[in-house]
Amino acid sequence: MLYHECAVVSIETFNLNIVKQQIRHLSFNRYLTSAQLSDLLVDLVAAYPGFATLHRIGESHQGRTIWLLELTNPATGPAHEKPGYYIDANIHAEEISGTSVVVYTAWYLLSRYGIDPLPTRLLDQQVFYLVPRVNPDGAEIVQTLPYYEWIGNGRYLPGEEQFGPGLRYADINEDGYILDMRFPDSGGEWKASQQDERLMLPRTPDDVDGTFYRVVPEGLLVDWDGGDFSIPRPQDGNLNRNFPSNWVPESQQYGAGEHPLSEPEVAAIVRWILDHPNIAGMQCYHTHSGVILRPWLTFPDAHFVGNDKLLYELLGQMGVEETGYPLISVYEDFTPDKNLQRYGSSIDWSFGALGIPTFSTELWDVFSAAGIEREDYYPLRHFSEQDQHKLLCWQDEKLDGDGFMPWTPFDHPQLGAVEIGGWKRLFTFRNPPPSHYLEAMAEANCRFTLRHAASAPRLRLRNCRLSAIAGDVYEISVEVENIGFLPTNLSDQALAMNAATPVVVKLSGPETLHLLTDPATQELGHLAGRFSRNQSYSRFYDWPLSAKTARWTVRLPAESAVRLSVCAECPKAGTVRADLIIDSDRTIVFRPAVVPASEGDLSAL
To answer: What sections of 198-253 are H helices per DSSP?
Structure first.
């Protein structure tokens, strides 16, 4: 359902500063609630009505709107006839910085149209589908209620999660945060650092002297008998385990849901992607580690078919150049325990089932920000005392100490004397402090996605010829070429899954035109892109074709001019049309039907 009707306008007529002031909450030094995000998107469409359309594609579990922003220049053709690029973010509740990166990308494309060549060309030739927030319920919970750390989908409010007896997260001192509690325990696993007493270090196996502590999340004990207690993980789901590829049930994978697509948020974005077969590239934003993730999640690299691994390396290298993040495999480099794989994920579905090259970028790495070098990429491990002290020094210097609450005595109603303090995880470990890092992070990742989008296949018509055969019988031929980087099938995986629609070309004209031998509509198969020729030279190499010729044998009406049209289309590579004007003297004029402003005159081709 369209939220705003399109009307063509020139972006260059706007004063960008005035436009920005008209868009509520358009700032990249803070995070947005659901209401603020909705206001911003509505205002963005109002400011750029000719290029932006807002869609309601679904509702969350709690009834919040899932927004999708569609961006293109309708003056150069309808959106469904252009290669598409899809971006989403914030599928996990606490990963709110991804929303800001998507909003930044939308603002950059719109505000730089007519000024910078790349966004101008992309909006003329392609269409963007942007979902800033897949999980509005979870994002609202973590921003409006005291937060500790969980990857949920917003099914339950804190305190209502589905878990058994033990410690339940709670803001017991009512300071607006759920932090950590520490209390002396001779059998405790932790001790305070002599370098900085705020820092808690794990005991070594032979450590028997000194004061030791238990460190647990701030909260209350449920059904406690006075002895030891567990800290059960809240069973609140994980939307990125609910996709229909490589799905396993909840008994095998936490957060899987009752069945694939059981969660309305996931069902909404899957439905949109399936309904838009023009999508030629995808990016999903997460926020933990500062890495660019590629397939596979459940298979080693040997599972790639054909040249798909090389394809990912070449596309991903653009992200490495723009962001400085490493490009890694989820299975090979981001899964420490291969027995604990991530099933039912978006990237294994979009690439595994559909063959769409998809990246899943983890945007934020607090350890790199603090100058901590590490050999592995998965963040959940113990760091040395020196590295942990660097983290504390980083937040002391960059955040004026606001990232870590000092340990403060508190009389716990069940445990007695405890101290409450520790990291404010939402804006340190899970997301960057917005006023310090957010805009630069958004800009770098925006550049990567625009370069990825620019690699899409793109059709062009050229070399139209009219050849006499006998009498009033002629052959009409036109070459259809892919001038993009990617092939029209995108990947070998798409071919393996039978998910790639071939190039089709059609000749049409007046009733007086008679086709003698060839059908009006012809299937040309797939056309290679520049990637397919990006191999080491070999004189034995079977060079793939990036252009193929369609031919029609026709009888033309005697001594009269004829106007024909040719249309070539492939969902991932767009639709191109041209008029063929055959004069009475049988000369032919080839005229592309639509000339994008950013591409110039193609009539000479």
So the answer is: none
